[in-house]
């Protein structure tokens, strides 16, 4: 580069400056900072006057430093300008090279356009060459192509004759010929090959049909089944040409095996009519194991191992059966018999040793992977429906049994008796048998169903007992009102006592094994209530019998003889003559309550104030009469069979002491002793007894009553039963003796 060029590219500097001012703002800022630093330094150096003498030295030193810095700056700028000059020169050379390359590319582009124009003139020649090659290939393949229609017809005939292996070989030859003509003809599809796809589909359908009848073919023509499976397997292993979709004959074969099984066993409606479910299940119980045996012994040897024929058969049959059962459950509600049959069959028979749980089925059946035939929701639905239907049926049967029993009560003859002479009716046995049989049968299905039916049975038994009790009340009401007089009213009440005893003694048969006995507590309570109701009705009848006799007691006639009590004992004995037909321990309860009723009637008569003794002789007679009557009543009920410990007639002996006391001032002691024996005695009762004496002054009465209140509290008596609290002193009532106690 000459010196003139170097001068042109060198920057022009202003006089007195080392770099352009406005173009270098950083330089201006640096100068300002330098000046500020210099002033600060100078002010610090020359702050003291004695240092001004050295000003000349500082000035010369700074001048030298300034010259040195300017020289260095000039050197850096000069080096920078030389580098820029070199870069500009290199850019100029590169521009010249790019321009040369551009000219060469333009020439090459012109040459390529000339070649393209020349190649267009060769297109007709190229087409003629391609046609010549196709004609040459067709000429070579023409003899084989002429035989294609005959080969297609022959292959179709082989398919119709179910000669699957020969048909498949022929089909593969035709497809091979089609592939050989494909490339030479440039992908041209010849009309002669248009029927190959239909021919292949026909062979696939024939193989599928053979697989669908695998069970029958395995027994009648296993070679045909083997041929169909072999064709499907060979086709599955074949590599398909590019662009041709694979034929899934293996999958079609497996699907046909499943569809054939389902068609044979589950194609017809599950329930052609109500009640046919049990027969259908019994038929499946025979056909499904036979089908599994056929699969294991005949079909499996005809198929490759990876077909898992036994597992396929088990899962297919199970899926079809499960689907059919679900369709059945979605239809009309099943009857109780069908519901029970389905539950028992699905939960016990189906997976039992006679069917899918057979020991002859090996592990290849893979039964553990099967879904339950009935889901938990299905079981819940079926159990609820079954319990509801059985409950309606049981309620109807129990209602009929009760109606039959009630109809017996109006007969002209006495109730039937068993060989031992006790009143007997088959009703309790029928009721318990109906309930127990339903509970027992459901144990064959599941514990949950048994618990449901057990709860239903107890509920229905409780409802039956309430209905029985209501029927007894209506029976008694109609009889007492005279609307329907029953010749043997008491006898049928006693028979009902035996019915209650039979139910109470046998109700434990309704308790399944493993169920806590506490579940029977409500039934036992209802039976106890029924017993009290029957006892109350019997005692009301007894009270009705004795009421006219006790209306004349106490009286002068009563004091003079035992005629009145003889009549009471005679009528009581006649009333209780059939008590022996009641089974133990109920007979003891009846006798005890009858004796208690007589005593309460006796006490009630005493408390009415119909007699006042006129002197000591009459008081002595009254005391002796009480003693005699107590002994006579005791003798009566002992003769009837009442245990002595249950007697309550001794209360009359306690009253005897109160009447026989000669010194009225000692009445307080006697009253206190009476209260100790009978804590429920009241002031009214004591006042009535004192009125009967006829010799007690007002002060003595007050002292006696005060001793009743001020005396020591009565000692607690175990098993004490109320007497005086049931006896009114005035305004007698027919039911006053029956508000509490075992029969209340």
UniProtKB/TrEMBL annotation:
Transmembrane segments: none annotated. Pfam families: Sec6. GO terms for molecular function: SNARE binding. Keywords: Cytoplasmic vesicle, Exocytosis. InterPro entries: EXOC3/Sec6, EXOC3/Sec6_C. Gene3D superfamilies: 1.10.357.50, Exocyst complex component Sec6, C-terminal domain. One of its GO terms (cellular component) is transport vesicle. It is found in: Cytoplasmic vesicle, Secretory vesicle. Residues 1-25 are annotated as: Disordered. It comes from the Eukaryota. The keyword NADP does not apply. One of its GO terms (biological process) is exocyst localization. As part of the exocyst, may play a role in regulated exocytosis of insulin granules. Interacts with EXOC2, EXOC4 and EXOC5; may be part of the exocyst. This is Exocyst complex component 3-like protein. It comes from Nannospalax galili (Northern Israeli blind subterranean mole rat).
């Amino acid at each position: 580069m000459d010196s003139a060029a170097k001068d042109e590219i060198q920057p022009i500097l202003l006089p007195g400056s080392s770099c352009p001012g406005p173009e270098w703002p950083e330089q201006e800022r640096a100068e300002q900072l330098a000046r500020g630093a210099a002033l600060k330094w100078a002010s610090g150096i020359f702050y003291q006057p004695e240092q001004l003498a050295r000003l000349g030295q500082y000035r010369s030193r700074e001048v030298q430093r300034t010259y040195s810095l300017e020289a260095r700056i000039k050197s850096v700028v000069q080096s920078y300008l030389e580098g820029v000059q070199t870069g500009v020169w290199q850019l100029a050379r590169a521009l010249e090279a790019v321009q040369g390359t551009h000219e060469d590319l333009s020439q090459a582009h012109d040459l390529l356009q000339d070649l393209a124009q020349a190649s267009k003139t060769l297109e007709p020649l190229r087409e003629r060459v391609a046609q010549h090659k196709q004609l040459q290939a067709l000429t070579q393949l023409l003899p084989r192509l002429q035989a294609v229609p005959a080969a297609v017809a022959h292959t179709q005939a082989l398919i119709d004759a179910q000669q699957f292996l020969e048909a498949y070989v022929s089909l593969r030859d035709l497809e091979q010929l089609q592939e050989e003509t494909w490339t030479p003809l440039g992908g041209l599809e010849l009309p002669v090959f248009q029927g190959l796809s239909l021919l292949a589909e026909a062979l696939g359908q024939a193989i599928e049909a053979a697989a669908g009848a695998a069970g029958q073919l395995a027994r009648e023509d296993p070679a045909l089944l083997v041929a169909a499976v072999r064709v499907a397997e060979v086709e599955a292993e074949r590599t398909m040409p590019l662009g041709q979709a694979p034929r899934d004959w293996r999958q079609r074969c497996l699907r046909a095996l499943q569809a054939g099984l389902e068609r044979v066993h589950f194609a017809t409606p599950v329930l052609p009519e109500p009640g046919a479910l049990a027969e259908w299940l019994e038929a499946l119980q025979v056909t499904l194991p036979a089908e599994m045996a056929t699969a294991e012994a005949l079909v499996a040897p005809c198929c490759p191992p990876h077909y898992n024929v036994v597992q396929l058969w088990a899962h297919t049959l199970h899926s079809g059966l499960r689907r059919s059962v679900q369709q059945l459950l979605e239809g009309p509600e099943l009857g109780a018999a069908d519901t029970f049959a389905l539950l028992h069959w699905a939960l016990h028979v189906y997976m039992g040793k006679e069917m899918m749980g057979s020991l002859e089925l090996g592990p290849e059946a893979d039964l553990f992977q099967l879904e339950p035939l009935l889901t938990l929701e299905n079981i819940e639905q079926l159990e609820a429906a079954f319990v509801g239907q059985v409950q309606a049926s049981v309620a109807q049967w129990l209602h009929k049994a009760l109606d039959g029993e009630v109809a017996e009560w109006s007969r002209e003859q006495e109730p039937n008796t068993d060989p031992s002479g006790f009143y007997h009716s088959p009703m309790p046995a029928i009721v318990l048998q109906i309930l127990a049989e339903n509970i027992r049968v459901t144990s064959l299905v599941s514990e949950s169903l048994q618990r449901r039916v057990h709860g239903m049975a107890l509920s229905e038994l409780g409802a039956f007992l309430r209905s029985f009790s209501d029927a007894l009340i209506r029976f008694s009401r109609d009889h007492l009102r005279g609307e329907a007089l029953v010749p043997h009213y008491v006898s049928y009440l006693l028979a009902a006592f035996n019915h209650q005893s039979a139910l109470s003694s046998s109700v434990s048969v309704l308790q399944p094994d493993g169920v806590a006995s506490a579940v029977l507590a409500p039934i036992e309570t209802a039976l106890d209530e029924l017993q009290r109701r029957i006892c109350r009705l019997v005692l009301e009848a007894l009270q009705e019998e004795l009421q006219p006799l006790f209306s004349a007691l106490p009286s002068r006639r009563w004091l003079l003889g035992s005629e009145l009590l003889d009549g009471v004992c005679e009528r009581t004995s006649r009333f209780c003559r059939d008590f022996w037909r009641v089974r133990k321990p109920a007979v003891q309860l009846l006798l005890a309550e009858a004796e208690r009723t007589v005593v309460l009637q006796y006490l009630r008569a005493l408390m009415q104030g119909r007699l006042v003794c006129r002197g000591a002789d009459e008081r002595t007679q009254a005391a002796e009469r009480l003693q005699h009557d107590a002994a006579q009543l005791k003798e009566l009920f002992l003769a009837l069979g009442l245990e002595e410990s249950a007697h309550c007639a001794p209360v009359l002996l306690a009253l005897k002491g109160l009447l026989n006391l000669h010194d009225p001032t000692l009445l307080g002691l006697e009253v206190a002793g009476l209260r100790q024996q009978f804590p429920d005695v009241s002031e009214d009762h004591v006042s009535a007894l004192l009125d009967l004496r006829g010799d007690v002054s007002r002060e003595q009465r007050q002292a006696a009553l005060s001793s009743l209140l001020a005396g020591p509290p009565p000692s607690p008596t175990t098993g004490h039963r109320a007497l005086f609290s049931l006896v009114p002193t005035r305004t007698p009532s027919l039911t006053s003796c029956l508000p509490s106690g075992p029969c209340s």
